[in-house]
Request: fold
Amino acid sequence: MKIYTKSGDKGETSLVYGVRVSKTDVRVEAYGTCDEANSAIGLGLSYISRDTEWAAFHHVFHVVQTKLFHIGAELATPQGKDVGWKIEESDVSFLEKTIDEWDAELPSLTNFVLPSGSPAGAAFHLARTVARRAERQAIAVQADGEVNPIVIRYLNRLSDFLFVAARYVNQKQGTVEPTLHQEKE
Reply:
């Protein structure tokens, strides 16, 4: 089997169920941005050891990356068609529970954190900004048609999760978080 199909050479692609749309379609932008966020998460994970100390962390992200893939599938499913892997409220609760657990181990924020730190932390900050864009684009899809409202809640919570994950990794790896220093007048 060849990896290329040549079916997109004229600027169109297929949604789920074979519906053809422009590659600039809002749905394509939204699920493509979910793919970008997922790739940035993968980059962050590539900087983290796979030893037993980090096993639970990797497991959490395996779940998150799988759910993000499912969101992409939901966004690629045309209005009125059945979704194979529907995001549920329990998926949002999973993020919230993990945010609360990791945040409890972090020092309180006293200043704005600059998106940086360790390579893993910086990659999770990048993934956070891409997740925010995916959320905005999912809202645009919702304006044009039907979108599972839990998808938008999940993407919103995902950006919070990735912020905490970046801080958590930076702390666990002993990297000082750079913060915004207010200049005194």
